[in-house]
Known about the structure:
46% of the residues lie in helices and 18% in strands.
Amino acid sequence: MMDKNREKYLNQLETYSNSLGIAKNHQGWGRLVDYLYLLDKWNKVYNLTSIRNLDEMFTKHILDSMAVAPYIDSERLIDVGTGGGLPGIPLAILFPERQVDLLDSNSKKTRFLIQAKAELKLDNVEVIKHRVETYQPAVMYDGVVSRAFASLDDMLSLTKHLLADSGCWWAMKSQKTQEELEQ
């Protein structure tokens, strides 16, 4: 028998995916819930996120990470300052045919990411423990995504060396974005 929270989250994922126009992916939705539970479990010891409530984690981390999915068309994407794997792991789950690299310099966070990659069987994910300003990929990325990483100016200047000429940036920002754009 499925636990009530899991069933609730799966139903919400289906509704939200439909609203975003994301293809049905029941297996992926299950893996997103597995990731949520894994994030919650490790968060108790490793302090991966300040959010402690599971429902709030689901909304503010899983659903929020999915919001950018309809816009990303990159085949090779890097999530800079990924922390606990957000938005990179949800994107890797939703798009298993795309390569998603997770970049973070924090050892405890990259240990969690390595474990999550293994437990969730994410063959399309690579975990990179490195500082963004000194990381030199062998092949440039056609997409850079980041969520609450830095100001827009800093994000662009710190990641421009990672992006191929025809690549795109996706900055998942808060309400302060308009202020940053006006500067």
